[in-house]
């Protein structure tokens, strides 16, 4: 596990234990009681988060064992077993909810991403995530997106020049913003610019932007802008963004864009249902 994962787990456990511990388990479960528990899927899902759950359990009690029964990115159906746990019953119960929270949320993101990937199958488009992620969980949410079959956009503010509408307003337009970025960037950083009109699209291509984001467009408008962009510069990478859902993503993909970014992969992903069943050794 990365140090960042350990810090994430410690923070999550601190929310639950708050320095006092699991008072219910400590006052009702015999101290020496050992047992086995199984984490089970309660619906069809794509699995993500088992290594993080294992870290939670070890953080609570290093003497426990966590055995994953499904690979990360694998599929599971209703009642399929995802992992088996052995050790102190008190420890298992103290770790239970934090483990399940991680698995439920991250598997939800992976499952949602699988839905989107299937919707655009057969087109040239790849669906990617955005920076709209849960604070502290970005690494894992982006990992879940990839496990589900979609792609990652930039990780943060540091790894891609993405000039959006507020940058354009502050810089004085597309040309000035792109030229400033090109003058300052190292050679390995890509420049992407957001446009909402044909005029800005033409200017972005003329300035040599590497990627153009066609933002908040209807399908007909998007198709028209794609045709214009391809006629001007066939090699430019085109991204569609803004309000794209599972219901609309196929139509957007069929306009001919290369990338479709949607926060629905992360912020719109419903948690999946997973549970833990305990069997004591007494």
Walkthrough of the structure:
The chain has helices at 3-17, 23-28, 50-60, 89-119, 138-148, 165-171, 174-184, 198-207, 219-232, 249-253; strands at 34-41, 45-46, 65-68, 75-76, 81-88, 126-128, 161-163, 191-195, 211-215, 237-241, 259-261, 274-280. The two termini are 33 Å apart. The chain folds into 2 domains: 3-116 and 269-280, Aldehyde Oxidoreductase, domain 3 (Alpha-Beta Complex); 160-265, Alpha-Beta Barrel (TIM Barrel). Helix content is 43%, strand content 20%. With 282 residues, the chain is of the alpha/beta class. The strands form 3 sheets. The chain has a 6-stranded parallel β-sheet with strand order 6-11-10-9-8-7. Helix 7 (174-184) packs parallel to helix 8.
Strand content: 15-25%
Largest β sheet strand count, sense and barrel closure: 6 strands, parallel
Enumerate the strands of the largest sheet in spatial order, edge to edge or round the barrel: 6-11-10-9-8-7
| Range of helix content | 40-55%
CATH architecture classification name of the largest domain: Alpha-Beta Complex
User: Number of helical runs?
Assistant: 10
The CATH class of the largest domain is identified as Alpha Beta
Shape: elongated
């Amino acid at each position: 596990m990365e140090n960042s994962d350990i810090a994430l787990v410690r923070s999550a456990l601190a929310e639950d234990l708050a320095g006092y511990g699991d008072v219910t388990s400590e006052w009702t479960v015999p101290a020496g009681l050992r047992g086995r528990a199984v984490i089970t899927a309660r619906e069809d899902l794509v699995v993500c988060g088992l290594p993080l759950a294992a870290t939670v359990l070890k953080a609570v009690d290093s003497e426990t064992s966590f055995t994953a029964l499904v690979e990360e990115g694998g599929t599971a159906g209703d009642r399929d077993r995802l992992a088996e746990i052995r050790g102190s019953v008190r420890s298992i119960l103290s770790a239970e909810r934090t483990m399940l929270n991680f698995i439920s949320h991250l598997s939800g993101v992976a499952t949602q991403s699988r839905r989107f990937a299937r919707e655009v199958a057969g087109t040239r488009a790849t669906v990617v995530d955005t920076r709209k992620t849960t604070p502290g969980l970005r690494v894992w949410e982006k990992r879940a997106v990839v496990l589900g079959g979609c792609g990652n956009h930039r990780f943060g503010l540091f790894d891609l020049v993405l000039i959006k509408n507020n940058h354009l307003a502050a810089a004085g337009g597309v040309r000035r913003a792109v030229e400033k970025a090109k003058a300052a960037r190292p050679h390995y950083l890509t420049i992407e610019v957001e446009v909402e009109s044909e005029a800005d699209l033409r200017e972005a291509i003329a300035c040599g932007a590497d990627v153009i984001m066609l933002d908040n467009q209807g399908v007909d408008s998007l198709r028209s802008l794609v045709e214009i962009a391809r006629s001007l510069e066939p090699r430019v990478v085109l991204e569609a963004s803004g309000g794209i859902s599972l219901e609309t993503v196929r139509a957007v993909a069929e306009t001919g864009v290369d990338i479709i970014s949607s926060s629905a992969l992360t912020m719109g992903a419903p948690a999946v249902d997973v549970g833990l069943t305990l069997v004591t050794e007494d």
